[in-house]
Amino acid sequence: MAHVRLKIQRFNPEMDSAPQWREYTVEAEPTDRVLDALHAVKWHHDGSLAFRRSCAHGVCGSDAMMINGKNRLACKLLIKDLKQPIVVEPMRGFAVVKDLIVDQTKFFEKYRSVKPYLIAEEPPPATERLQSPKQQERFEDTTKCILCGACTTSCPSFWANGEYVGPAAIVQAHRFLFDSRDQGAEERLEVLNKASGVWRCRTIFNCTDACPRGINVTKAIVEVQNLLVAHAKQGSTTDAAQ
Amino acid sequence: MATSSALSSAYGRPKPTGGLELWSWVFMRVSGLLLLVLALGHLVIMHLINSVDAIDYDFVARRYIGWFWRSYDLLMLVLAMVHGLNGLRVILDDYLHQPVQRRIAAWLLYGIGGALTALGIVAVVVFQPPSSVGVP
Amino acid sequence: MRPVVRHQYDAVIVGAGGAGLMAALEASKGCRVAVVSKLYPTRSHTGTAQGGIGAALGNREPDNWEWHMFDTVKGGDYLVDQDAAEFMCKEAIRVVYELEHMGLPFNRTPEGKIDQRKFGGHTKEFGKGPVQRSCFAADRTGHMILQTLYQQCIKRQVTFFDEYRLVDVLMREGRCCGVVALCLATGELHVIHAKAVLMATGGFGRMYKVTSNAHTLTGDGCAILWRRGLPLEDMEFFQFHPTGIYKLGILITEGARGEGGVLRNRTGERFMERYAPTLLDLAPRDMVSRAVHQEIRAGRGIDGKDYVHLDLTHLDRRVIEEKLPDITDFVRTYLGLDPVRELIPIQPTAHYAMGGIPTNLNAEVLADEQGRVVPGLYAAGECACVSVHGANRLGTNSLVDIVVFGNRGGQRIAEWAPKAEWAALPDDPEGSAQEQLARLEANRGGDEAARLRAEMQQVMMDDVGVFRIHAGLQEACERVNRLRAAYQGVGLSDKGRRFNTEVEELLELGGLLDLAWVTATAALARQESRGGHSREDFPNRDDAKWLKHSMASLRGDAVQLAYKPVTITRFQPQERKY
Fold first, then answer.
1. What share of chain C in percent tops pLDDT 70?
2. Which of B61, C191, C310, C556 has its CA 20 to 30 A from that of C165?
3. In this predicted complex, what is the ipTM?
4. What is the CATH number of domain A105-241?
5. Residues C270 and C154 reside in one and the same domain
6. C42 in any annotated domain
7. Residues of B in contact with A197 (CB under 8 A)
């Protein structure tokens, strides 16, 4: 056990007029996760500290927060790999509900806006639809998304302009746009072609850096942009032919 | 319309999309690349091959006898103005959220940009090299 | 007193994991449904299931639902209700195809069919050798199921109450008529009047110190029904997964062994050869966990410590990185080891509750050992006990369970709820919830709760773990009971209403303590060894006396145990060898 120093941004809008920093020193192993240190604070120092968490091994996406200036999952960072005091703040770009908990309502609205579900209206066969391993690999990267919000809230374009659908929603759209079974490209591309859609991406790569699942987010966004351009070109040639 | 979109959805072929944002995005990439070549060329000619001291009225006048350098400069001027203005428009969208503000900003941009571009075009197009130029 | 908001829906689903979402999808085809979940649905624990979902599709080699059923029954050490297992194994095929139609991105065979791989305890021709039955999407099958079901719920515009924590289930004259939930964001209570309530609240592995379960897996639904006097079935059976990452408990999928990984002790010996000569490392989980423990006890743990090694180093790097990418990432992140070149330290980790709320094939909750149904109350998934897992669940069958019985429960609700009459709410429906919360607010806060939790987890790990013995179980019962008494005095240090996660943790602790008590008590009573319940003082299975399900109920302040027979149709109990 060693002493671990944490500096956490605390804010309870019920009582505080502005966020404030508080420092804590807790006992933890160097190989413990930041989440374990947060639990040590909550369980032994200050029960009022609020944060989300569930699976504690980087799969459920509950505990995305800004740690030492970068968006990370608290359960996927080990204390030994961090400079102390470990500075913990809520993700940027959403209203803070309390301490490290942000209001994700808008995030999920944006997610819903890209119609994140398979659209295939003809009746399916009695068994599975066929899809080659190659077709499945085409969109595998973006199926890994856990909707933690780390990408969207690390994106300067999103900070500046909250209308932007954000990387997470585009990743979700990508997952269906490149699925050979999906037929909803038309509807989804319409949403993504708006001023609030993919064109707001400035290829800053913060999203790719922030993704705890190692998804190549920027690449996915550019692939959607290219898809839109390809469809527009295809469209203008058909128009000309008519 | 309804029929055609139902059909295209049945065949999984998206309806043609386009629109301002898409083409402005494409334009930014294409013009960016062209500007890279044009501006670098400009830099090399004006500052490396020729010394700044050597550039004078005669130098410009000599270049503008033919159509090539005029077109070069015109293209660079128009691309740079539109590229820059469009970039500003997109950036302003990040900070101006009300439609009215956006419209005012856009018209201001178009106005100033249009005036500056026009001024540049006039300078390049109507310039008449004196007849003495070109005689060594 | 907290402000109260009232709602009315035909059906309320509590929990938004695989079972809850599947039920919501089906139920929403026939009536107005609301899903209440203490987490955003995509945070549910279904998302951490790795290896696959078992279904006899026969895409890789001949397979048959009856073989799947046999494996399920034998894997469950014959405590499985065979009518339920038959239903599940048949339905599994249909439901897996349905999931594919919903868009689930399964790995594919070269012909483009759903790919399948080997998994512990799954055999061909009634035990002749391993079979490829587990349909998978890399090692994140659960993630894909959860995402796919949530996507479909969005498509169907199902109503969600995200981050609402169940506090009470409302009953009137033996019929269920709604729930009370705490809105975490505001601290308000919400009374939801409903004709049908389906519990899909998951397991309760957090009663153990080393567990693969999420922090939020605290058996909320089970505990609340238990306090309402309803029975819990087969609570003594808790599964320990043999391959948890040492100390952390994070799961390394059985798929790792399905792809060819082996277990080794300190001498490097593949010790499963001695315990299960046919299935080796792919024997069912209870057997492998016991084998690991026995190796450790015999001093053959690594460096004499309490762990052994999982060896993947002989596998091709591509197999490891492409078919097991997530666990490769876990091992690299948490242990700093590269599974391609290094051995992974593992120990058994508390993983799955075979027991829970007793239900019938329609996912209807049973009020007693005679099979009387509680009208309007349903349960599905890990919180329920149908029982398809008997004394030990087979790998992949949890995902089968949630989708099959979530689906079935949802169907039943869609048929039943539109026709059913509304039952009136009890007088003062939120009274008990208000009282519970007021007590936590009135008591003094501090780190007492953390101390109680830590002690409970340690006691359960030591005395109600892989191996159990009379004296230990008795002590566990007493100690957990003392902790329950101490719990009455714990309170909040944070009296705020807004997103008070301390309230949530205290409610969870209260539930876990009750469930730990029931688990230890039922384990103390069962004087035999069967599946996940292994008694050192009664090392053999005793079908004459104990081929029966336990039903534990709260009577006064005591656990009352009753028993009911096991349904046996096709397969007579045999000795369980692999």
1. 100
2. C556
3. 0.96
4. 1.10.1060.10
5. no
6. yes
7. 21
